[in-house]
Amino acid sequence: MESVIGLVVGLFCVFLVLLKKINGWYIESKLEKTTRSLLPPGDFGFPFIGNMLSFLKAFKSNNPDRFIDSYTNRYGRIGMYKAFMFGSPTILITAPEKAKQMLMGEEIFIPGWPKATTKLIGDKSFIAISIERHRRLRKMTAAPINGYDALSTYLAFIEEATISSLNKWFRIGSEIEFLTELRRFTFGIIMHIFLSTEGSSIITGLEQAYTDLNCGIRAMAINIPGFAYHKALGARRKLVEILRSVLDARRKRKELVAGKNNKNGKDMMDRLMEVEDENGLKLGDEEIVDILIMYLNAGHESSAHITMWATVFLQENPLIFRKAKEEQEEIRRSMISTSQKHLSLKEIKKMEYLSKVIDETLRLVNISFVTFREATEDTNVDGYLIPKGWKVQIWARSIHLDSSVYSNPKQFDPSRWEGVIPKPGTFIPFGAGARLCPGNELAKLEISVFLHYFLLDYRMKRVNPKCPIRYLPHPRPKDNCLATISRSSCTD
User: Fold this and answer.
1) Quick check: is 459 in a domain?
2) DSSP labels for 313-358?
3) 211, 425, 463, 482 - which has most CB atoms within 10 Å?
4) What is the CATH number of the domain that holds 234?
5) Residue 377, domain extent
6) Global pTM?
7) 94 in a domain, yes or no?
8) 44 found inside a domain
9) Are 470 and 478 in contact (CB under 8 A)?
10) End-to-end CA distance of the chain
11) Domain annotation covers residue 469
12) Cα–Cα distance between 291 and 273 in angstroms, integer?
């Protein structure tokens, strides 16, 4: 009986190996023979699903890095491998110099996000449009978000929201889901910037829809009830409905005040409604909605997760906490000496060590662990060929945790950034090149202000400090960082 079972298992293993080989032959048969010989090493997994099972298995375990490790262990640390991901033949990039080439070569390597991501965020958003349209829209939207005047304006609201939120969580006096509360906090900030005049009912509706949307952004595009993508599509429809209703309401209000030129109090939706290109053409409703969905999503998820992890790392490392706190205490003393009651961008620039804490958190956590591109022409990279039309994935996580790039890469060590300017391609939490995340400065401002007040006046104690981590869609404790917030004592 045992011999029969062994035979069946052996035959099944042989069948799986043959299935993989047939799938690889089929995919490569579409290429010229000379092209096939220049592909980097790797494998395409099984028909239709490719390497997605091993990817999902790794990222649903406590060791997501084993997915890329399976390639480096088999083929060496060459920095690029062939695979089949999200329904397309793909080249995985895991080396800084190659990542730089992909991210900086905007004309050759255009956005190549999975179908699910593009459909959910919108094919007229920044992640899907051409480089020319991207530059035009980026120029239009970047200044109101990352410009000096804009950041100065937003700083007052962020500071007020931070003080109020920390005090509220402290007064609760019991356990809270710290990450959940931070997501609400950052969502309120981004809503103020983009939709400042809307009511709380709109904010509540958008917040829940974004929670569902995020679960499907990096899922396989399976539109069947029970799958994350199906639920996320429903969330997108709700988002579109809400934002279109806001657009319609604002147009009606503008008609009532036609001829009045009041530039005060305008938020990002107002600016998107009014902007014109060089030919006098305005953005359509679909473009405005897709841009807002992208910005509203990116503008609060990353900030909330990084703020949570920075707080966790600071609490877990008392010496680092003390050094960061001393810097903030010096800033507060300086403000008191000049009777200054509120933070300004001048104080933010003085937070040099805190900035290193944030950068180290970005490196270690890897909220955006992979960036997607597509080759517009056959491209040779270090002797290997990336065929035209193939997808390219730049694995920031692998680069940020590479021991040949960073010593003790899994150790939280902000001092590694002292006197260091990262080499191109080695530190890419916000991407690089023309498509660098336009909201990066705003995100760091939010995080800096929150950590400033937290370090000075509060402490966090996790209920489950050893809680397992869930890595998709973003790394987070499975209990959403269940914790209590208390005020710090004078002796802390």
Assistant:
1) yes
2) HHHH-HHHHHHHHHHHHHHHHHHHHTT--S--HHHHHH-HHHHHHH
3) 425
4) 1.10.630.10
5) 18-487
6) 0.89
7) yes
8) yes
9) yes
10) 68
11) yes
12) 11
